[in-house]
Amino acid sequence: MAGQEHGPGSDPDPSDVPAALRSALVRLAADVLGDTDPADVPPSLLAVRRFAPRRRATAGGAPLWSALQEDAAFRARVARVWLQAHDPAPAATPDREPSSTEGAAGVTQVETTSPGPATGTDAAVGAWLQNLPWQHLVPTSAPAVVETADTQRLAGLEREVERLRAALGVAREDERAARDELTALQRELRRLRSDADRARSEARALAAAAELDARRAAADLQAAADERAQAAADLRAAAAERSSAREELRTGHRLAESRVRLLLDTVVDAATGLRAELALPPVRDLPADLVAPGVDGPHVRPTSRGRSVGDPALLDDLLRLPRAHLLVDGYNVSKTGWPHTTLADQRRLLVDGMAALAAQTGAEVTCCFDGQAGHRAAPPVRGVRVLFTAGETADDLLRQLVAAEPPGRVLVVATSDREVVEDVERAGAWAVPAATLVERLRRH
């Protein structure tokens, strides 16, 4: 842009600007440049800004003067600084900025009041910066006065005042910018707080929904686990029942087969033994040959029938029959034979004697003793089966063993219990007193 004429908006020749006014403008621009943020410094003044503060106005006078004329933004900033320095009560607030309009030559003209108490060259500086008439404010030329030391000191003080006013204007301009930034930051802070409150509210709602979903999922998971456990328990129970049923069925089949086979072997062996006992001769006569009168029948050999159950010889005859089974009421017999010894010694003496008897006769021998819950059956002792009851008496076990045998097998029960004797005889077994078995054991 060019220098100012006598009215606003005119463009006279810049050579019309007096040297004093131009020097004051350059000094003010140098002071403003030193306090300007590097990002806002015009490119042509970057090198000038690096000068020492006292050298900027002298060494960088030409670039500063050119920037004041050509750079509207820099000129407007210098004008604002001048106004801040000469206005004791700035009108700018944190929420409102001073309005500005563009001059005809492209320079920003700041809307303001009168330049305050400035006069003379200082007032002309403010008017020139604001595109206002300034020629009438320039002091008229006066007769040259010889400068004294006081005059020089006064001139230096005036320049210092101008510098301080420029610094004050810069400070006020920075304060205004800081207030504007503070206002913007406060608005941003309020917006961020509102967003944070809304986010926290949404987060609480989401957390409550997630907690509700988690509780529902946990309840569903627990219900599924309970159902699975119940199904597993039912499956195990069904498997156990199936296994038990299969085991009972197999046991029943084995028992039936054992009874049938044992009965068959008993019949075969009984027939063979009967032939040997009766000493039957080979068949020599046929029925047709015996029709003739005067022929006597076959001779019948006497057997064990009619003998007393207290006869040990009868016990021997019974045990020598094929597949004979001797069932012994353990403590009933042991207390009869060895009443003054301990139960352990009684069991040992009885089982040893029964082992010798089994070896002599070849009969199957089972000794039943009263036991306690959890007492397991002892392993066979030299051919003698030893059983201990669990939750029942030896008498009940004897009845069960007799009932389990097939009909027709020779069963001999050694006991002095009258009820047991009646029950086993009713089931088809022989019953001999305990004393008979003890006497038979003592004979050998």
Automatic annotation (TrEMBL):
InterPro entries registered for this protein in UniProt: YacP-like
Region (Disordered): 1-20, 88-123
Species of origin: Cellulomonas xiejunii
UniProt keyword Coiled coil, yes or no: yes
Coiled coil: 154-248
Keyword entries, A-Z: Coiled coil
Name of the molecule in the record: NYN domain-containing protein
Keyword Coiled coil in annotation: yes
